[in-house]
Design a protein that fits this description.
Length: 106
C-alpha cells in the first residue's frame, strides 16, 4: 500500500498544542488553527469565567453560524449569476409590429 503524503504541523490553540495532519498545506492548517484560537480568545474576553470546553463549543457555534450565513450568501449569488447568464442567452424579442413600424419610419 502506498503511503499517503500528508502535511503535518503542530499548532497552539488557546494554550494547548495539537498536531494537525491533512492534505492542506501547513500554512493553511496554521491559518485555520489561528482562526479557531482567535475566536476562542474573543469569546473568553467577554466571558472570562468560561472553561476551555465551553469556549470551544461557543467558538464552534459562532463559526458554524458564519459558515451557514456565508453559504446562504454564496447560494444567492450563484442563483443571481445563473439568472443573469440566462437573461444574456435569451435574446429579447420585439413584437413584429414594432419592427415593421421602425422600418416604415426610416
Amino acid at each position: 500500500m502506498p503511503k499517503e503524503n500528508k502535511e503535518r504541523v503542530t499548532v497552539e490553540i488557546y494554550g494547548q498544542y495539537y498536531t494537525m495532519k491533512g492534505d492542506s498545506s501547513s500554512s493553511h492548517m496554521r491559518m485555520v488553527a489561528g482562526y479557531v484560537d482567535d475566536k476562542m480568545r474573543q469569546i473568553a474576553t467577554g466571558n472570562p469565567r468560561l472553561d476551555t470546553n465551553k469556549l470551544a463549543v461557543l467558538a464552534a457555534i459562532n463559526m458554524a453560524d458564519e459558515y451557514f450565513r456565508l453559504r446562504m450568501e454564496y447560494e444567492e449569488l450563484i442563483a443571481l449569476l445563473e439568472r443573469s447568464t440566462q437573461e444574456e442567452e435569451d435574446p429579447i424579442e420585439e413584437p413584429v409590429e414594432e419592427i415593421n413600424n421602425k422600418e416604415d419610419k426610416e
